[in-house]
Write a structure and sequence with these properties.
The protein is built from 11 helices and 7 strands. The chain starts with a strand and ends in an 11-residue tail after the last helix. It has one domain: Rossmann fold, CATH 3.40.50.720. With 266 residues, it is α/β, with parallel strands linked by helices. The longest helix has 24 residues. 46% of the residues are buried. Strand 4, helix 3 and strand 5 form a beta-alpha-beta unit. Helix content is 48%, strand content 13%.
């Protein structure tokens, strides 16, 4: 029986992933603010360090998988959003790397990104760059230049873009791929979780969320996203490396039908 660590395991996508895995006889170590094996606040450096050390104690230093689903969205403090969504993901992935590489070359990691990475305009590159350089103080300073709805939208998109780029940049390296760790990301669209409901209930953000076109007609569900993550944790992911899988009801395809990279050339 393998052991999978899940951040944000108490609600939303994380809770659905947990149920799916436990139904398949996987052992889950949940990390959350409540109702989890490891209680930790991922918005704080000390909380992230505690989450890493306590999880490693519980798993005996060996993990077969990690799912980073802890995250927040508007309306929420932009600085804390960056800290939870990005630093709470990246610090734990780095902190769990040795335990993943100890799983006999059969580890799977699914980082939860978002389709906001491609459909949110004018996300500051310097903010994404500060995130990828693990400069939390600079990232907070940059987001202070914005306010209100703009700050929250940019913090969310930047944090999720950093997650996707981290996966793309690191997955093919010897440190990850040659260590037997398959690192991939999933990019959900609007999914009816408590996080999304909070946005829908907000007068300012609710209108913007409802205006987002979803070709399939309805919001996604945590259960559907969990099924995809379960597949990405299985041996079906043996040949997946650095993939970012969009499961968003077609929003990205609708808004960017021709926005696909050119062929690689030397």
């Amino acid at each position: 029986m393998g052991t999978i660590a899940i951040t944000g395991s108490a609600s939303g996508i994380g809770a659905s992933v947990r149920r799916t895995l436990e139904n398949n006889d996987m052992r889950v170590i949940g990390i959350d603010l409540r109702d989890a094996e490891v209680i930790a606040d991922l918005s704080e450096k000390d909380g992230r360090s505690r989450a890493i050390s306590e999880t490693l104690d519980l798993c005996g230093g060996v993990l077969e998988g990690v799912v980073t689903s802890a995250g927040v969205g508007p309306p929420f403090d932009p600085k804390k959003m960056l800290s939870i969504n990005w630093f709470g993901t990246a610090d734990l992935l780095v902190g769990f790397h040795e335990a993943l590489s100890s799983s006999s070359g059969n580890a799977r990691v699914v980082a939860v990104s978002s389709n906001s990475t491609t459909i949110t305009p004018n996300v500051p590159e310097e903010l994404i760059d500060a995130c990828l350089k693990f400069d939390e103080e600079k990232a907070h300073t940059i987001i202070e230049e914005y306010s209100g709805m703009t700050a929250m939208a940019l913090a969310y998109a930047a944090s999720k873009t950093a997650v996707a780029r981290f996966v793309r940049q690191n997955a093919p390296t010897d440190q990850w791929a040659r260590s037997g760790i398959r690192l991939n990301a999933i990019a959900p669209g609007a999914t009816l979780t408590p996080l999304l409901q909070g946005g829908l209930d907000n007068q300012e953000f609710g209108e913007a969320i409802r205006a987002m076109p979803i070709p399939t007609g309805e919001f996604g569900t945590p259960e559907v996203i969990a099924k995809w993550i379960n597949t990405m944790l299985s041996d079906a992911a043996d040949f997946m490396c650095g993939s970012v899988v969009f499961v968003d009801g077609g929003s990205d395809a609708l808004l960017r039908p021709n926005d696909w990279p050119q062929s690689f050339s030397m």
